[in-house]
Amino acid sequence: MHPDRQLTNDRFGKIFTPAWYKSVTPNIISGFQTTGIFPFDKDAIPPEAFAPIDVAFQDVQNGM
Predict the structure, then answer these.
(1) Is 56 part of a structural domain of the chain?
(2) Among positive and negative, which fits the CA dihedral 42, 44, 46, 47?
(3) What's the whole-model pTM score?
(4) What are 27-54's pLDDT values in tens digits?
């Protein structure tokens, strides 16, 4: 629609972000927030939540 304009990274973000929030459902946004994906939160899932995976991996290493 506007051949005289370039789509820069900055302009893309300003256009994309409002469209993103209008297009995704609250459940999807909540899922990203809960897992710490967006906004990024490395502490969203505590390390102890991964403990069963560590135990299963140790069983495989020990031949069980």
Answers:
(1) yes
(2) negative
(3) 0.37
(4) 888 888 888 888 889 898 888 887 766 6
